[in-house]
Amino acid sequence: MDIVILGLPMMYYIAMVAKVLVAFVFVLLTVAYATYAERKIIGHMQVRLGPMRTGWHGLLQPIADGVKLFFKEEIVPSQASTFAFLIAPLIALVPAFITFAVIPFGGVIEVAGYKIPLQIASYVDMASGKVYDINVGVLYILAMSSLGVYGIVLAGWASNSKYSLLGGLRASAQMISYELSAGLAIVSVFMLSGTLSMNEIVNLQSGMGGFEWYAFKQPLAFIMFFICSIAEINRTPFDLPEAETELVSGFCTEYSSMKYAMFFMAEYANMVTVCALTTTLFLGGWNGPLATTFTLLGPVYFVAKVYFLMFFCMWLRATVPRYRYDQLMHIGWKVFIPLGLINIVVTGIWNYLI
Fold it and tell me: What is the total count of domains within the chain?
């Protein structure tokens, strides 16, 4: 007889734990080898080889870096606010992982007679077979991703260093500026889909050989959202909070050992989350040829799209110079926000006419 807890069979809780572990391991491994991939890709783009000495073609370099950082000495500045200094890396890292809870990375698979959706915060109703997830999943992601900047600002303030403080202030101003534009870009997706559920948004983009993707229906919103997301996670060419040429290493100047590694992990984990969110909202999520027939193809398509967007982020870093701070603010307030508002008006008129 099945064990039922809070109205759900035990199998659903086992499946949920398994999905959490799979997603966590996937993000961790991707973060580790994204650092390696970025160094190799940028190296080849600059006619270099990148890491070559640790393992075959440098494949063990991320492990060597992790071991090195783990055994380095922990340094806390004497004038720093100790508790805030120590907790800041954790505040920056945790939101990057928990946002993955609402992103669907596949369809519905059957295990031991139970239908299991490949999305952590979801379940299948046994009677109707309908998948239920958080019906405000996009708002959850926006809320969680906004928390990460608190860790950066706290690190800048707690370090008691002028370089760190300037980096923290830049991060907060940058997040406020570009989150508005990213939100305006997403509004057009809501207007087309009529829902905030991530699972429903993915389902509405199935069919038509990919032409149902919102990247085709809302190309301006797609480009705006992806660029604004890159700015929010402080990636080149928007890496003003840690600009080495001006601020040494910005908000993480005074950090060392594993605390520095946590900021490093947070940046790449945020990049994975941003690419996964862009894939879900604009590139059809896990949809692809035969994905509904062979359910295990769904995660393959999803990961391929995420890795393609990550490659594009690395390509940007290799080719585009960093913006000045005034250029950064100009683009955010005087270009993207007006474009986002115009796009919403045009989308509203289009929905009304059809």
Answer: 1
Q: How far apart are CA 289 and CA 293, in angstroms?
A: 9
How many residues are there in the chain? 354
Angstrom distance (rounded) from CA 153 to CA 169: 6
How many helices and strands (H and E) does the chain possess? Answer: 13, 6
Handedness of CA 163, 164, 168, 174 (dihedral sign): positive
Q: Is the pTM of this model over 0.90?
A: no
Would you list the DSSP string of 55-109? SGGGTTHHHHHHHHHHHSPP---TTS-HHHHHHHHHHHHHHHHHGGGG---S-EE
* Calpha distance 196→124 (Å, rounded): 18
Per-residue pLDDT tens over the stretch 55-75: 888 888 888 888 888 888 888
Q: Which residues constitute the domain of residue 232?
A: 4-353
Q: How far is Cα 306 from Cα 314, in angstroms, rounded to an integer?
A: 13
State pLDDT tens for residues 99-131: 888 888 888 887 777 778 888 887 777 666 677
